[in-house]
Amino acid sequence: MTVALLDCNSFYASCEKVFRPDLVERPVVVLSNNDGCIVAMSREAKNLGIPRGIPLFKARSFLKEKNIEVFSSNYVLYADLSRRVMDLLSSRVPVMEVYSIDEAFLILDHLPALPLPLCRELRDDIQRGIGIPSSVGVAPTKVLAKIAGGIAKKRSDGIFALGDVDAAGAGASPPAFGHEKDIDLVLGETPVEDVWGIASRLAKRLRERGIRTALDLRKVDDAWAKERITLTGLRIVWELRGIPSIVMEEVAPPKKGIMSSKSFGHPVTDLEDLLEAIGDYTARAAAKLRSQESACRLIDIWLTTNRFRESERQYSAGTVVSLAEPTDYLPDLVAAARRGLKSIYKDGYRYKKVAVFLSGIEGMKGLQGDLFRNPDPRKSALMAAVDSMAARYGPGALSCTAMRPSNDWQMRREMLSPLYTTRWDQLPQVRTG
């Protein structure tokens, strides 16, 4: 088997550069929710040594001194450009797994083009057609492809192959792709904590037993691996040996729980603001629920103040609201969430965050309903219309919760870029002459 991992480089920062040609060689950073910390950087920004996760207020003077462009997180733009990348890949490679917003595993067997030339074409097409740079690691298994992908990011041509893959068109260096000694050399230089699937706590235990590199892990006994690092760990060992053992998930499995939660832009004290927020968060979670054709039985609600502000009164509470029957109908979900919030709300506190968690999730097909109540087909039709409007005009096009023009709960995003690809009124403009 030949597996490729295509990874979009510095994805959030690269998305911000697509419609800003003036930023091609400029360092760019992207902030977390409420413009709190730096969570993503372009290659130029990484080369300046900016620590990931540093709060904006600590880095502000350095950012200004180095003329670094700063953006608030624009998740709608990132999701749309990710969709375009994945659509392009799926049109060329029938068997693929979307691993994250900026990564996809591809099976390159039985295709008209040879693996490495095809990877080069895919990279070029994504760069030319969408504007996103990418790198590709190619290997016989997913774990080895992950390791190869890390090396590919550091190469000028953006491609690196490990194991028995076709090297035609791979470029000039390094030579001798596909030789066992090359895999041993690479695995011997890969720390065990950098192996995909090896968490930091497990890596620490392995190091205590003298297993410090991917090569060391590859050589462990099967029985020992199954006993000490479970069957999942044994599969990783097999993958390091070039034996495909982690299945491709062409369709993401339905989620068993769906969370929607963001910190507020400012401390919130008013119950009406909290009810607006809980309605909006529930709508976002419900959209994900319907996208996987599921319904839920339970809604968990959490409400908390800012525990880092020790001078303020602290309060945190949660509750679970049970539904009469599993549903994906937004008005029912929002009504239940509002009931839950009202039951735990206390006046006189400055709230930092509210969260919604949908659980007790079941597939809509074969759903067991209420014996004494007939399902209302109008509900399904209404939700289909809501989803259609959201697909056409963006999330929040329709809402069952009144939203006041001014509120304190919306995220603070003072450096937000336009929604170039999903809003007619924010389409990029080109001036000539």
Structure description:
This protein has 433 residues and is α+β, with helices and mostly antiparallel strands. The chain has 13 helices and 13 strands. The strands form three sheets. Strands 5-6-1-7-8 form a five-stranded mixed β-sheet. Strands 9, 10, 11, 12 and 13 form a five-stranded antiparallel β-sheet that branches.
Strand count, sense and closure of the main sheet?
A: 5 strands, mixed
Mean pLDDT figure: 88
Share of helix among residues?
Answer: 25-40%
Shape: globular
Q: Work out the number of β strands.
A: 13
Q: Unreliable runs, pLDDT <50, ≥5 residues?
A: 167-179
- Count helical runs: 13
* H-E string: EHEEHHEHEEHEHEHHHHEHEEHEEH
**SS class:** alpha+beta
The gyration radius over C-alpha positions equals 25 Å
End-to-end Cα distance: 53 Å
Tell me the β content. 15-25%
Strand order of the largest sheet: 5-6-1-7-8
Record the SSE blueprint.
Layout: E1 3-8, H1 11-18, E2 28-31, E3 38-41, H2 43-47, H3 56-65, E4 69-71, H4 75-92, E5 96-100, E6 103-107, H5 115-129, E7 134-139, H6 142-152, E8 159-161, H7 180-188, H8 200-208, H9 214-218, H10 222-240, E9 258-268, H11 271-291, E10 294-305, E11 316-327, H12 330-344, E12 351-359, E13 362-363, H13 377-393
Parallel strand pairs: 2-4, 7-8
Antiparallel strand pairs: 1-6, 1-7, 2-3, 5-6, 9-12, 10-11, 10-12, 10-13
Helix pairs in contact: 11-12
